Protein backbone atom coordinates (compact mmCIF):
# COMPACT_ATOMS: atom_id res chain seq x y z
CA UNK A 1 0.00 0.00 0.00
CA UNK A 2 1.20 3.51 -0.80
CA UNK A 3 2.21 5.16 2.48
CA UNK A 4 2.71 8.68 1.12
CA UNK A 5 0.78 11.26 3.13
CA UNK A 6 -0.42 14.66 1.96
CA UNK A 7 -1.25 17.29 4.57
CA UNK A 8 -3.96 19.81 3.72
CA UNK A 9 -3.56 23.21 5.40
CA UNK A 10 -5.17 26.61 5.09
CA UNK A 11 -2.81 27.83 2.38
CA UNK A 12 -3.74 25.22 -0.23
CA UNK A 13 -1.91 22.27 -1.76
CA UNK A 14 0.59 21.68 -4.55
CA UNK A 15 0.33 20.20 -8.02
CA UNK A 16 2.33 17.19 -6.80
CA UNK A 17 -0.11 16.73 -3.92
CA UNK A 18 -3.02 16.51 -6.35
CA UNK A 19 -1.22 13.97 -8.55
CA UNK A 20 -0.26 11.90 -5.51
CA UNK A 21 -3.82 11.69 -4.18
CA UNK A 22 -5.51 11.26 -7.57
CA UNK A 23 -3.15 8.73 -9.14
CA UNK A 24 -1.15 7.17 -6.30
CA UNK A 25 -3.83 6.95 -3.58
CA UNK A 26 -1.75 9.00 -1.14
CA UNK A 27 -3.29 9.36 2.31
CA UNK A 28 -4.77 12.70 3.31
CA UNK A 29 -4.46 14.47 6.65
CA UNK A 30 -5.86 17.84 7.71
CA UNK A 31 -3.50 20.11 9.62
CA UNK A 32 -4.32 21.41 13.10
CA UNK A 33 -4.30 24.94 11.70
CA UNK A 34 -6.88 24.03 9.09
CA UNK A 35 -9.12 22.41 11.70
CA UNK A 36 -8.90 25.62 13.75
CA UNK A 37 -9.80 27.71 10.68
CA UNK A 38 -12.76 25.44 9.96
CA UNK A 39 -14.02 25.90 13.51
CA UNK A 40 -13.68 29.71 13.35
CA UNK A 41 -15.57 29.94 10.05
CA UNK A 42 -18.26 27.58 11.31
CA UNK A 43 -18.86 29.73 14.38
CA UNK A 44 -19.51 32.69 12.07
CA UNK A 45 -22.07 30.67 10.08
CA UNK A 46 -23.78 29.46 13.26
CA UNK A 47 -24.01 33.05 14.50
CA UNK A 48 -25.53 34.26 11.22
CA UNK A 49 -27.91 31.31 11.11
CA UNK A 50 -29.34 32.35 14.49
CA UNK A 51 -30.21 35.85 13.24
CA UNK A 52 -33.54 36.76 11.64
CA UNK A 53 -31.97 38.38 8.58
CA UNK A 54 -31.72 36.08 5.51
CA UNK A 55 -28.19 35.09 4.45
CA UNK A 56 -27.64 33.47 1.05
CA UNK A 57 -26.68 29.82 1.32
CA UNK A 58 -27.44 29.77 5.04
CA UNK A 59 -31.10 30.70 5.32
CA UNK A 60 -32.28 31.17 1.71
CA UNK A 61 -32.93 29.09 -1.37
CA UNK A 62 -30.35 28.87 -4.17
CA UNK A 63 -29.79 30.39 -7.58
CA UNK A 64 -33.02 31.84 -8.96
CA UNK A 65 -34.77 30.66 -5.76
CA UNK A 66 -32.56 32.78 -3.48
CA UNK A 67 -35.40 35.16 -2.65
CA UNK A 68 -37.11 32.65 -0.38
CA UNK A 69 -36.22 32.79 3.30
CA UNK A 70 -35.86 29.33 4.86
CA UNK A 71 -36.72 28.88 8.55
CA UNK A 72 -34.52 26.90 10.99
CA UNK A 73 -36.79 23.85 10.90
CA UNK A 74 -36.23 23.37 7.13
CA UNK A 75 -32.53 24.18 6.80
CA UNK A 76 -31.16 20.65 7.21
CA UNK A 77 -33.64 19.51 4.59
CA UNK A 78 -32.59 22.42 2.37
CA UNK A 79 -28.96 21.30 2.44
CA UNK A 80 -29.82 17.65 1.77
CA UNK A 81 -32.13 18.66 -1.05
CA UNK A 82 -29.55 20.75 -2.87
CA UNK A 83 -27.21 17.76 -2.98
CA UNK A 84 -29.90 15.32 -4.07
CA UNK A 85 -31.39 17.58 -6.74
CA UNK A 86 -28.02 18.69 -8.09
CA UNK A 87 -26.72 15.10 -8.37
CA UNK A 88 -28.23 15.00 -11.83
CA UNK A 89 -25.31 13.81 -13.93
CA UNK A 90 -25.79 11.57 -16.96
CA UNK A 91 -23.65 9.56 -19.32
CA UNK A 92 -20.55 7.40 -18.84
CA UNK A 93 -18.67 7.28 -15.55
CA UNK A 94 -15.81 9.70 -15.09
CA UNK A 95 -12.40 8.16 -14.45
CA UNK A 96 -11.46 7.28 -10.88
CA UNK A 97 -8.43 9.60 -10.83
CA UNK A 98 -10.61 12.54 -11.86
CA UNK A 99 -13.09 11.88 -9.06
CA UNK A 100 -10.31 11.58 -6.47
CA UNK A 101 -8.82 14.88 -7.67
CA UNK A 102 -12.29 16.44 -7.54
CA UNK A 103 -12.84 15.39 -3.92
CA UNK A 104 -9.34 16.30 -2.81
CA UNK A 105 -9.54 19.79 -4.30
CA UNK A 106 -12.93 20.40 -2.71
CA UNK A 107 -11.41 19.33 0.61
CA UNK A 108 -8.58 21.79 -0.02
CA UNK A 109 -11.08 24.64 -0.31
CA UNK A 110 -13.04 23.49 2.75
CA UNK A 111 -9.80 23.65 4.74
CA UNK A 112 -9.18 27.26 3.69
CA UNK A 113 -11.54 28.42 6.41
CA UNK A 114 -13.72 30.35 3.97
CA UNK A 115 -16.59 27.89 3.40
CA UNK A 116 -18.13 27.55 6.84
CA UNK A 117 -18.44 23.75 6.95
CA UNK A 118 -17.89 21.96 10.24
CA UNK A 119 -14.50 20.31 10.90
CA UNK A 120 -16.19 16.90 11.07
CA UNK A 121 -17.51 17.30 7.54
CA UNK A 122 -14.01 17.92 6.20
CA UNK A 123 -12.63 15.02 8.24
CA UNK A 124 -15.24 12.69 6.79
CA UNK A 125 -14.26 13.68 3.26
CA UNK A 126 -10.64 12.86 4.13
CA UNK A 127 -11.83 9.49 5.45
CA UNK A 128 -13.54 8.75 2.14
CA UNK A 129 -10.34 9.44 0.24
CA UNK A 130 -8.25 7.35 2.61
CA UNK A 131 -10.72 4.46 2.39
CA UNK A 132 -10.44 4.69 -1.41
CA UNK A 133 -14.18 5.02 -1.78
CA UNK A 134 -14.90 6.71 -5.10
CA UNK A 135 -18.29 8.29 -5.82
CA UNK A 136 -19.91 7.54 -9.18
CA UNK A 137 -19.64 10.76 -11.20
CA UNK A 138 -21.01 11.09 -14.73
CA UNK A 139 -19.71 12.77 -17.86
CA UNK A 140 -22.43 15.40 -18.23
CA UNK A 141 -23.78 17.82 -15.64
CA UNK A 142 -21.33 20.70 -15.27
CA UNK A 143 -21.46 24.03 -17.10
CA UNK A 144 -18.27 25.19 -15.38
CA UNK A 145 -20.02 27.96 -13.50
CA UNK A 146 -21.33 27.90 -9.95
CA UNK A 147 -18.62 25.29 -10.01
CA UNK A 148 -18.76 21.72 -11.25
CA UNK A 149 -22.18 21.35 -9.69
CA UNK A 150 -23.42 17.91 -10.69
CA UNK A 151 -20.03 16.15 -10.35
CA UNK A 152 -19.44 17.62 -6.90
CA UNK A 153 -23.01 16.83 -5.89
CA UNK A 154 -22.47 13.16 -6.66
CA UNK A 155 -19.44 13.27 -4.36
CA UNK A 156 -21.44 15.00 -1.62
CA UNK A 157 -24.18 12.38 -2.03
CA UNK A 158 -21.66 9.67 -1.12
CA UNK A 159 -20.59 11.72 1.89
CA UNK A 160 -24.23 11.60 3.02
CA UNK A 161 -24.30 7.82 2.56
CA UNK A 162 -26.59 7.96 -0.46
CA UNK A 163 -26.28 6.82 -4.07
CA UNK A 164 -23.63 4.42 -5.37
CA UNK A 165 -19.85 4.44 -5.11
CA UNK A 166 -16.90 2.27 -6.05
CA UNK A 167 -15.05 0.51 -3.26
CA UNK A 168 -11.31 -0.08 -3.08
CA UNK A 169 -11.87 -3.46 -4.71
CA UNK A 170 -13.35 -1.79 -7.80
CA UNK A 171 -16.88 -3.03 -7.12
CA UNK A 172 -19.81 -0.60 -7.22
CA UNK A 173 -22.05 -0.80 -4.17
CA UNK A 174 -24.52 1.42 -2.31
CA UNK A 175 -22.59 4.21 -0.61
CA UNK A 176 -24.22 3.46 2.75
CA UNK A 177 -22.80 -0.08 2.67
CA UNK A 178 -19.32 1.09 1.76
CA UNK A 179 -19.26 3.74 4.50
CA UNK A 180 -20.47 1.23 7.09
CA UNK A 181 -17.87 -1.32 5.99
CA UNK A 182 -15.11 1.23 6.64
CA UNK A 183 -16.55 2.60 9.87
CA UNK A 184 -17.39 5.99 8.36
CA UNK A 185 -20.44 7.84 9.71
CA UNK A 186 -22.46 9.59 6.99
CA UNK A 187 -22.58 13.37 7.29
CA UNK A 188 -25.85 15.04 8.32
CA UNK A 189 -25.55 18.38 6.58
CA UNK A 190 -26.22 21.65 8.38
CA UNK A 191 -26.56 25.27 7.25
CA UNK A 192 -24.48 26.14 4.20
CA UNK A 193 -22.70 22.77 4.06
CA UNK A 194 -24.58 21.36 1.07
CA UNK A 195 -23.80 24.44 -0.98
CA UNK A 196 -20.17 24.53 0.16
CA UNK A 197 -19.61 20.94 -0.96
CA UNK A 198 -20.61 21.53 -4.57
CA UNK A 199 -19.74 25.11 -5.50
CA UNK A 200 -16.21 24.96 -6.91
CA UNK A 201 -14.06 24.52 -10.02
CA UNK A 202 -12.46 21.39 -8.62
CA UNK A 203 -13.20 18.94 -11.44
CA UNK A 204 -11.87 21.11 -14.22
CA UNK A 205 -8.86 22.07 -12.09
CA UNK A 206 -8.04 18.45 -11.28
CA UNK A 207 -8.19 17.52 -14.95
CA UNK A 208 -6.03 20.54 -15.83
CA UNK A 209 -3.35 19.50 -13.35
CA UNK A 210 -3.22 15.93 -14.63
CA UNK A 211 -3.17 17.12 -18.25
CA UNK A 212 -0.23 19.40 -17.48
CA UNK A 213 1.70 16.49 -15.97
CA UNK A 214 0.96 14.30 -18.99
CA UNK A 215 1.79 17.04 -21.50
CA UNK A 216 5.10 17.83 -19.83
CA UNK A 217 6.16 14.22 -20.45
CA UNK A 218 4.74 14.19 -23.98
CA UNK A 219 6.50 17.40 -24.97
CA UNK A 220 9.82 15.90 -23.89
CA UNK A 221 8.94 12.74 -25.81
CA UNK A 222 8.09 14.85 -28.86
CA UNK A 223 11.49 16.58 -28.74
CA UNK A 224 13.05 13.12 -28.84
CA UNK A 225 10.93 11.82 -31.72
CA UNK A 226 11.48 15.03 -33.69
CA UNK A 227 15.23 14.53 -33.29
CA UNK A 228 14.93 10.90 -34.40
CA UNK A 229 12.96 11.96 -37.47
CA UNK A 230 15.52 14.65 -38.32
CA UNK A 231 18.24 12.03 -38.03
CA UNK A 232 16.37 9.46 -40.12
CA UNK A 233 15.85 12.09 -42.84
CA UNK A 234 19.58 12.92 -42.86
CA UNK A 235 18.71 16.47 -41.86
CA UNK A 236 20.98 19.10 -40.42
CA UNK A 237 21.31 19.73 -36.69
CA UNK A 238 22.82 23.17 -37.36
CA UNK A 239 19.36 24.75 -37.00
CA UNK A 240 19.43 23.71 -33.34
CA UNK A 241 22.39 25.95 -32.48
CA UNK A 242 21.62 27.91 -29.29
CA UNK A 243 22.59 31.26 -30.81
CA UNK A 244 19.82 30.89 -33.40
CA UNK A 245 17.21 30.48 -30.67
CA UNK A 246 18.66 33.15 -28.41
CA UNK A 247 17.69 35.80 -30.96
CA UNK A 248 14.04 34.79 -30.60
CA UNK A 249 13.94 34.44 -26.84
CA UNK A 250 10.92 32.25 -26.22
CA UNK A 251 12.09 29.99 -23.39
CA UNK A 252 10.28 26.86 -24.56
CA UNK A 253 11.82 27.10 -28.01
CA UNK A 254 15.34 27.16 -26.59
CA UNK A 255 14.57 24.18 -24.37
CA UNK A 256 13.22 22.10 -27.25
CA UNK A 257 16.15 22.97 -29.50
CA UNK A 258 18.66 22.12 -26.79
CA UNK A 259 16.99 18.80 -26.08
CA UNK A 260 16.89 17.84 -29.75
CA UNK A 261 20.58 18.75 -30.02
CA UNK A 262 21.36 16.61 -26.96
CA UNK A 263 19.63 13.62 -28.53
CA UNK A 264 21.51 14.10 -31.82
CA UNK A 265 24.95 14.60 -30.30
CA UNK A 266 27.44 12.26 -31.95
CA UNK A 267 25.13 11.26 -34.82
CA UNK A 268 26.66 9.89 -37.97
CA UNK A 269 23.48 10.54 -39.95
CA UNK A 270 22.89 14.28 -39.58
CA UNK A 271 24.24 16.46 -42.33
CA UNK A 272 24.22 13.82 -45.08
CA UNK A 273 21.51 15.77 -46.89
CA UNK A 274 24.23 17.54 -48.89
CA UNK A 275 25.20 14.19 -50.46
CA UNK A 276 21.85 13.75 -52.23
CA UNK A 277 21.75 13.86 -56.01
CA UNK A 278 19.90 17.18 -55.59
CA UNK A 279 21.45 18.64 -52.43
CA UNK A 280 19.03 20.25 -50.01
CA UNK A 281 19.71 23.79 -48.94
CA UNK A 282 17.51 23.36 -45.87
CA UNK A 283 15.07 20.92 -44.32
CA UNK A 284 11.29 21.09 -44.57
CA UNK A 285 9.38 23.11 -42.01
CA UNK A 286 8.14 20.08 -40.06
CA UNK A 287 11.79 19.24 -39.33
CA UNK A 288 13.41 22.65 -39.24
CA UNK A 289 10.69 24.36 -37.20
CA UNK A 290 10.18 21.56 -34.67
CA UNK A 291 11.65 23.60 -31.77
CA UNK A 292 9.51 26.61 -32.60
CA UNK A 293 6.26 24.63 -32.57
CA UNK A 294 7.07 22.41 -29.60
CA UNK A 295 8.55 25.38 -27.77
CA UNK A 296 5.40 27.45 -28.17
CA UNK A 297 3.47 24.52 -26.72
CA UNK A 298 5.90 24.25 -23.84
CA UNK A 299 5.35 27.90 -23.02
CA UNK A 300 1.59 27.32 -23.14
CA UNK A 301 1.94 24.48 -20.64
CA UNK A 302 4.04 26.74 -18.42
CA UNK A 303 1.32 29.41 -18.44
CA UNK A 304 -1.33 26.79 -17.70
CA UNK A 305 0.72 25.70 -14.69
CA UNK A 306 0.74 29.29 -13.41
CA UNK A 307 -3.05 29.39 -13.65
CA UNK A 308 -3.36 26.02 -11.92
CA UNK A 309 -1.10 27.10 -9.06
CA UNK A 310 -3.10 30.30 -8.59
CA UNK A 311 -6.29 28.26 -8.47
CA UNK A 312 -4.73 25.87 -5.96
CA UNK A 313 -4.14 28.84 -3.68
CA UNK A 314 -7.75 29.99 -4.07
CA UNK A 315 -10.86 29.40 -1.98
CA UNK A 316 -13.62 28.95 -4.55
CA UNK A 317 -17.09 29.03 -3.02
CA UNK A 318 -20.19 31.20 -2.93
CA UNK A 319 -20.93 32.70 -0.53
CA UNK A 320 -17.61 32.82 1.29
CA UNK A 321 -16.96 33.30 4.98
CA UNK A 322 -14.62 36.21 5.74
CA UNK A 323 -13.41 36.14 9.35
CA UNK A 324 -12.46 39.50 10.82
CA UNK A 325 -8.76 40.17 11.31
CA UNK A 326 -6.93 42.54 13.60
CA UNK A 327 -4.56 45.21 12.21
CA UNK A 328 -1.61 42.95 13.05
CA UNK A 329 -3.11 40.12 10.96
CA UNK A 330 -4.23 38.01 13.89
CA UNK A 331 -7.75 36.67 14.24
CA UNK A 332 -10.41 39.11 15.33
CA UNK A 333 -13.97 38.74 16.60
CA UNK A 334 -16.76 37.65 14.28
CA UNK A 335 -16.89 37.89 10.52
CA UNK A 336 -19.30 38.00 7.61
CA UNK A 337 -20.61 35.95 4.69
CA UNK A 338 -20.40 37.54 1.23
CA UNK A 339 -21.68 36.53 -2.18
CA UNK A 340 -19.14 36.60 -5.01
CA UNK A 341 -18.42 35.28 -8.50
CA UNK A 342 -15.18 33.40 -7.88
CA UNK A 343 -16.83 30.12 -8.87
CA UNK A 344 -16.78 31.16 -12.54
CA UNK A 345 -14.45 28.80 -14.37
CA UNK A 346 -13.18 31.19 -17.06
CA UNK A 347 -9.50 31.27 -15.94
CA UNK A 348 -9.28 27.49 -15.96
CA UNK A 349 -11.46 27.00 -19.05
CA UNK A 350 -9.31 29.28 -21.18
CA UNK A 351 -6.08 27.41 -20.52
CA UNK A 352 -7.77 24.04 -20.96
CA UNK A 353 -8.80 25.16 -24.44
CA UNK A 354 -5.40 26.71 -25.10
CA UNK A 355 -3.69 23.41 -24.24
CA UNK A 356 -5.97 21.51 -26.61
CA UNK A 357 -4.94 23.88 -29.41
CA UNK A 358 -1.22 23.54 -28.66
CA UNK A 359 -1.46 19.76 -28.36
CA UNK A 360 -3.29 19.51 -31.69
CA UNK A 361 -0.55 21.47 -33.44
CA UNK A 362 2.17 19.30 -31.91
CA UNK A 363 0.33 16.22 -33.16
CA UNK A 364 -0.04 17.81 -36.58
CA UNK A 365 3.67 18.53 -37.05
CA UNK A 366 4.62 15.06 -35.81
CA UNK A 367 2.31 13.47 -38.39
CA UNK A 368 3.90 15.56 -41.15
CA UNK A 369 7.34 14.19 -40.23
CA UNK A 370 5.97 10.65 -40.25
CA UNK A 371 4.44 11.13 -43.69
CA UNK A 372 7.75 12.48 -45.00
CA UNK A 373 9.62 9.43 -43.70
CA UNK A 374 7.24 7.12 -45.58
CA UNK A 375 7.21 8.95 -48.94
CA UNK A 376 9.97 7.68 -51.23
CA UNK A 377 9.94 11.02 -53.06
CA UNK A 378 10.81 12.92 -49.87
CA UNK A 379 12.59 10.48 -47.54
CA UNK A 380 15.98 10.63 -49.28
CA UNK A 381 16.69 7.06 -50.21
CA UNK A 382 14.51 5.04 -47.86
CA UNK A 383 12.13 2.39 -49.27
CA UNK A 384 8.49 3.35 -49.88
CA UNK A 385 6.55 3.21 -46.59
CA UNK A 386 9.71 1.68 -45.08
CA UNK A 387 8.46 -1.64 -46.50
CA UNK A 388 10.64 -4.74 -46.66
CA UNK A 389 9.54 -5.61 -50.20
CA UNK A 390 7.46 -2.66 -51.39
CA UNK A 391 4.41 -3.80 -53.31
CA UNK A 392 4.33 -7.19 -51.63
CA UNK A 393 4.66 -5.41 -48.27
CA UNK A 394 2.78 -2.22 -47.38
CA UNK A 395 5.13 -1.33 -44.55
CA UNK A 396 3.86 1.47 -42.32
CA UNK A 397 1.38 2.92 -44.82
CA UNK A 398 -1.67 2.39 -42.61
CA UNK A 399 0.12 3.37 -39.42
CA UNK A 400 0.21 6.85 -40.93
CA UNK A 401 -3.52 6.59 -41.70
CA UNK A 402 -4.16 5.88 -38.04
CA UNK A 403 -1.95 8.78 -37.04
CA UNK A 404 -3.75 11.08 -39.49
CA UNK A 405 -7.13 10.06 -38.06
CA UNK A 406 -5.88 10.93 -34.58
CA UNK A 407 -4.62 14.31 -35.79
CA UNK A 408 -7.99 15.04 -37.38
CA UNK A 409 -9.72 14.14 -34.12
CA UNK A 410 -7.39 16.47 -32.21
CA UNK A 411 -8.24 19.32 -34.56
CA UNK A 412 -11.93 18.84 -33.76
CA UNK A 413 -11.12 18.72 -30.06
CA UNK A 414 -9.19 22.00 -30.40
CA UNK A 415 -12.42 23.93 -31.03
CA UNK A 416 -12.77 25.99 -27.83
CA UNK A 417 -15.49 25.09 -25.35
CA UNK A 418 -15.02 28.29 -23.37
CA UNK A 419 -16.51 30.48 -26.11
CA UNK A 420 -19.83 28.73 -25.65
CA UNK A 421 -22.39 29.62 -23.00
CA UNK A 422 -25.92 28.39 -22.37
CA UNK A 423 -27.91 30.38 -19.78
CA UNK A 424 -29.29 28.39 -16.86
CA UNK A 425 -31.26 28.75 -13.62
CA UNK A 426 -34.02 30.92 -15.10
CA UNK A 427 -31.42 33.38 -16.47
CA UNK A 428 -29.89 34.02 -13.04
CA UNK A 429 -26.80 32.14 -14.19
CA UNK A 430 -26.76 33.69 -17.64
CA UNK A 431 -23.09 33.23 -18.55
CA UNK A 432 -21.11 30.05 -17.92
CA UNK A 433 -17.56 28.89 -18.68
CA UNK A 434 -18.04 25.34 -20.00
CA UNK A 435 -14.71 24.57 -18.32
CA UNK A 436 -15.70 21.00 -17.46
CA UNK A 437 -16.35 20.33 -21.16
CA UNK A 438 -13.00 21.90 -22.03
CA UNK A 439 -11.32 19.58 -19.54
CA UNK A 440 -13.07 16.47 -20.80
CA UNK A 441 -12.05 17.06 -24.40
CA UNK A 442 -8.48 17.90 -23.38
CA UNK A 443 -8.17 14.49 -21.69
CA UNK A 444 -9.18 12.88 -24.99
CA UNK A 445 -6.71 15.07 -26.87
CA UNK A 446 -3.84 14.15 -24.55
CA UNK A 447 -4.54 10.45 -25.12
CA UNK A 448 -4.53 11.03 -28.88
CA UNK A 449 -1.26 12.95 -28.72
CA UNK A 450 0.45 10.07 -26.94
CA UNK A 451 -0.59 7.74 -29.77
CA UNK A 452 0.57 10.18 -32.45
CA UNK A 453 4.01 10.51 -30.88
CA UNK A 454 4.19 6.72 -30.58
CA UNK A 455 3.61 6.35 -34.34
CA UNK A 456 6.37 8.87 -35.08
CA UNK A 457 8.68 7.00 -32.73
CA UNK A 458 7.86 3.68 -34.39
CA UNK A 459 8.45 5.14 -37.85
CA UNK A 460 11.63 7.09 -37.10
CA UNK A 461 13.35 4.23 -35.31
CA UNK A 462 12.63 1.85 -38.21
CA UNK A 463 13.92 4.46 -40.67
CA UNK A 464 17.15 4.92 -38.72
CA UNK A 465 17.73 1.17 -38.70
CA UNK A 466 17.30 1.15 -42.48
CA UNK A 467 20.15 3.66 -42.91
CA UNK A 468 22.71 0.92 -43.36
CA UNK A 469 26.34 1.95 -42.98
CA UNK A 470 25.57 5.07 -40.96
CA UNK A 471 25.86 5.22 -37.17
CA UNK A 472 23.06 6.91 -35.24
CA UNK A 473 23.64 9.08 -32.18
CA UNK A 474 24.25 7.24 -28.90
CA UNK A 475 20.97 8.57 -27.50
CA UNK A 476 19.11 7.34 -30.57
CA UNK A 477 20.76 3.95 -30.24
CA UNK A 478 19.65 3.78 -26.60
CA UNK A 479 16.06 4.69 -27.52
CA UNK A 480 15.93 2.04 -30.25
CA UNK A 481 17.39 -0.64 -27.98
CA UNK A 482 14.90 0.14 -25.20
CA UNK A 483 12.00 0.13 -27.65
CA UNK A 484 13.03 -3.26 -29.01
CA UNK A 485 13.44 -4.59 -25.45
CA UNK A 486 9.86 -3.46 -24.83
CA UNK A 487 8.68 -5.84 -27.54
CA UNK A 488 8.35 -3.39 -30.42
CA UNK A 489 9.87 -5.05 -33.47
CA UNK A 490 12.13 -3.42 -36.02
CA UNK A 491 12.27 -3.58 -39.84
CA UNK A 492 11.09 -6.68 -41.64
CA UNK A 493 8.21 -8.17 -43.64
CA UNK A 494 4.66 -7.09 -42.92
CA UNK A 495 3.16 -8.36 -39.69
CA UNK A 496 0.16 -7.67 -37.46
CA UNK A 497 0.94 -4.01 -36.72
CA UNK A 498 -1.54 -3.07 -33.98
CA UNK A 499 0.33 -4.85 -31.14
CA UNK A 500 3.56 -3.05 -32.05
CA UNK A 501 1.79 0.32 -32.09
CA UNK A 502 0.10 -0.40 -28.76
CA UNK A 503 3.43 -1.34 -27.21
CA UNK A 504 5.02 1.83 -28.61
CA UNK A 505 2.18 3.86 -27.12
CA UNK A 506 2.74 2.32 -23.68
CA UNK A 507 6.47 2.95 -24.05
CA UNK A 508 5.81 6.65 -24.60
CA UNK A 509 2.96 7.03 -22.10
CA UNK A 510 4.88 5.38 -19.27
CA UNK A 511 7.89 7.65 -19.82
CA UNK A 512 10.21 4.83 -20.88
CA UNK A 513 11.36 6.72 -23.98
CA UNK A 514 12.50 9.66 -21.88
CA UNK A 515 14.23 7.37 -19.35
CA UNK A 516 16.12 5.51 -22.07
CA UNK A 517 17.40 8.70 -23.70
CA UNK A 518 18.28 10.37 -20.39
CA UNK A 519 20.73 7.56 -19.69
CA UNK A 520 22.83 9.11 -22.46
CA UNK A 521 21.87 12.79 -22.47
CA UNK A 522 21.35 13.38 -18.77
CA UNK A 523 18.11 14.93 -17.43
CA UNK A 524 15.63 16.37 -19.93
CA UNK A 525 12.69 18.60 -19.03
Count helical runs.
19
Shape: elongated
CATH superfamily (homologous) name of the largest domain: Fumarase/aspartase (Central domain)
Question: Under the CATH scheme, which class of the largest domain?
Answer: Mainly Alpha
| Average pLDDT reading | 94
Helix content class: 40-55%
Q: Hey, roughly how much beta strand do the residues contain?
A: 5-15%
**Overall CATH architecture of the largest domain:** Up-down Bundle
Q: What is the name of the CATH topology of the largest domain?
A: Fumarase C, Chain A, domain 2
Number of strands: 9
Oligomer description: single chain
The structure class reads mainly alpha
Question: Taking Cα atoms only, what radius of gyration do you get, to the nearest Å?
Answer: 27 Å
Query: Would you identify the regions where 5 or more consecutive residues have pLDDT less than 50?
Result: none
Strand-and-helix sequence, N→C?
A: EHEHHEHHEEHEEHHHHHHHEEHHHHHH
Tell me about the biggest sheet?
3 strands, antiparallel
Side by side, the strands of the main sheet go 4-6-7
Terminal Cα separation, in Å?
29 Å
Count of spatially separate domains: 2
Family: Belongs to the PAL/histidase family.
Organism: Streptomyces albipurpureus
Catalytic activity: L-histidine = trans-urocanate + NH4(+)
Modified residues (2,3-didehydroalanine (Ser)): 146
Structural account:
Helix 9 packs parallel to helix 14 and helix 11 (251-264) crosses helix 13 (290-312). The chain has 19 helices and 9 strands. A hairpin with a 5-residue loop joins strand 6 and strand 7. It has 2 domains: 5-200, Fumarase/aspartase (N-terminal domain) (Fumarase C, Chain B, domain 1), CATH 1.10.275.10; 208-310 and 344-521, Fumarase/aspartase (Central domain) (Fumarase C, Chain A, domain 2). The chain is 53% helix and 7% strand. It is mainly α and 525 residues long. It has helices at 15-24, 32-49, 75-86, 96-110, 119-130, 149-159, 175-181, 193-198, 202-232, 242-246, 251-264, 285-288, 290-312, 346-374, 397-413, 435-465, 474-485, 498-509, 512-521; strands at 5-8, 27-30, 90-93, 134-135, 138-140, 164-166, 172-174, 320-325, 331-338. The mean pLDDT is 94. A 3-stranded antiparallel beta sheet has the order 4-6-7. The chain has a two-stranded parallel sheet with strand order 1-2. It has a two-stranded antiparallel sheet with strand order 3-5. It catalyses: L-histidine = trans-urocanate + NH4(+). The modification 2,3-didehydroalanine (Ser) is found at residue 146.
